[in-house]
Design brief:
The structure is a single chain. Helix 10 links the parallel strand 7 and strand 8. Helix 9 runs parallel beside helix 10 and helix 12 packs parallel to helix 13. This protein is about 35% helix and about 10% strand. The longest helix has about 35 residues. The strands form two sheets. Strands 9-8-7-6-3-2-1-11-10 form a nine-stranded parallel β-sheet. Strands 4-5 form a two-stranded antiparallel sheet. It has about 475 residues and is an alpha/beta fold. Keywords: Golgi apparatus, Hydrolase, Membrane, Signal-anchor, Transmembrane, Transmembrane helix. Belongs to the glycosyl hydrolase 99 family.
Length: about 475
């Protein structure tokens, strides 16, 4: 009888433990389910996309090095007459500056947001530009054979995993520029970091856009926003060409009220230039331009400015310092893709910058997905997790108390880093991702929330 009682108690205890274990597993599964993407289109089991994939860094950086492999498009003939009409129409239609303080959040000039004006459509450009992005093949032919080829066919089929509320728009459309400025201002950002190529130059999939700059400046001024320049890795970029291009930008646009100047610790107000893929050029060349003793020095001239280099690998911080740059930014919205874009490295990077009198500008993003143009790249996808990924990035940035935070991006649709309004869309062949269960403006609202939080915390830092 005693043995029977002992066995009965043992069985009851075992059943209770088993039941509790099953309940624990069920609760974990339910929690994970709430974090799953709205639709399973990423190709990897959920969770892998949020882990660092450092072994992929070198390979993907190679693809990024040539303007993020945005291109290899077929050569096309520019429709110059339509272009001129569009630009002239915009110049004539820019409304005067008006007071928007009551209806929109005040701009935060320490929140910089990357902006792309390279999109086109038949109405304004005579053809689609960038929305018809080609599908980029994997560098390994064996892998490439497993994925589709060709290019996208707008307006229903575009080179993006999300679909913009404004449709396959043209960056020259005055109503689009107006809507973009209003969205960026509503998000309480203050400085537009405009992707820029010298006159007559463009990325391989686009068209020259420098003549659009005056219109963007005018609309930015209407919304009390400022514009700085994100200098892309144009052909033959070196110390000499950079000197001439910086001079060109300051001479042509420096007098505009929307042209951004940053107040330094010494009280000077200097233009600021972000330099994408700066690591492609050796430090000795940059030093010619950016150090006082350099042969092409821009220091202590009317064209002196703050130059911000892209940090990808850890060793780049020493190259950046040696080159004479004034600071560094991390750009990529993929946590773990590179040393610089990994949130856990920001504290040490900030400490390095502080000890070497450099600015550290972390770049935060809402997520990442580029499988619409790199269908083989699902391992670098970062799920938005209904805004949680974005907020985690902001939280990591605020921890290091940066002078400036940059946002990747307002409208880099190809890489799914946009905070521009997106809407649900389904076609015969594809279901686009969207921001549900939230509204199309959810990432603008989150940006505004963190802009205010940053402002309040910054006041505490300065006390």
């Amino acid at each position: 009888i005693l043995n029977y009682d002992i066995m009965a108690r043992f069985r009851r205890r075992t059943c209770i433990i088993l039941l509790l274990f099953i309940l624990f597993i069920c609760s974990i599964m339910m929690a994970l389910k709430t974090l799953r993407p709205d639709r399973a289109g990423f190709g990897d089991p959920f969770g892998l996309g949020l882990l660092p994939e450092l072994q992929q860094r070198t390979v993907l950086l190679d693809s990024k090095q040539n303007s993020l492999n945005r291109v290899q498009a077929d050569p096309v003939t520019r429709v110059s007459n339509l272009h001129s009409i569009a630009v002239n129409t915009m110049k004539a239609s820019v409304p005067p500056v008006n007071k928007l303080e009551e209806e929109l959040s005040s701009p935060n000039y320490n929140f910089h947001i990357f902006y792309y004006s390279w999109f086109g459509n038949p109405q304004f450009d005579g053809k689609y530009i960038h929305w018809n992005h080609p599908l980029l093949p994997h560098w390994d032919p064996k892998i490439a054979n497993n994925y589709p080829k060709g290019r996208h066919n707008p307006p229903e089929d575009i080179g993006a995993n999300f679909y913009p509320e404004l449709g396959s728009y043209s960056s020259k459309d005055p109503s689009v520029i107006e809507a973009h400025m209003k969205q960026m201002r509503s998000a309480s950002t203050g400085v537009i970091v405009l992707s820029w190529y010298p006159p007559g130059m463009a990325d391989e999939n686009g068209e020259p856009t420098d003549d659009l700059v005056p219109v963007i400046l005018d609309y930015a001024h209407k919304y009390n926003l400022k514009v700085t320049f994100h200098i892309e890795p144009y052909k033959d970029r070196d110390d000499r060409s950079m000197y001439h291009n910086v001079k060109y930008i300051i001479d042509k646009y420096g007098g505009h009220p929307a042209f951004y100047r940053h107040k330094t610790s010494t009280g000077r107000f200097l233009p600021m230039f972000y330099v994408y893929d700066s690591y492609v050029t050796i430090p000795e060349i940059w030093a010619n331009l950016l150090t006082v003793s350099g042969s092409q020095t821009i220091r202590n001239t009317p064209y002196d400015a703050l130059f911000i280099a892209l940090l990808v690998e850890e060793r780049h911080k020493h190259d950046i310092h040696r080159s004479g740059f004034d600071g560094m930014y991390t750009y990529f919205a993929t946590n773990g893709f590179s040393y610089g874009s990994s949130h856990h490295n920001w504290a040490s990077l900030k400490a390095f910058c502080d000890s070497n009198n450099l600015m550290f500008i972390p770049s935060v993003g809402p997520g990442y997905i580029d499988t619409s143009i790199r269908p083989w790249n699902n391992h670098n996808t970062r799920n938005r997790v209904n805004g949680k990924y974005y907020e985690t990035a902001f939280s990591a940035a605020l921890l290091v108390r940066p002078e400036v935070i940059s946002i990747t991006s307002f409208n880099e649709w190809h890489e799914g880093t946009q905070i521009e309004k997106a809407v649900p869309k389904r076609t015969g062949q594809m279901v686009y991702l969207d921001y549900k269960p939230h509204k199309p403006n959810v990432y603008l609202e989150l940006t505004q929330k963190w802009s205010e939080k940053y402002r309040k915390e910054q006041e505490q830092w300065l006390m």
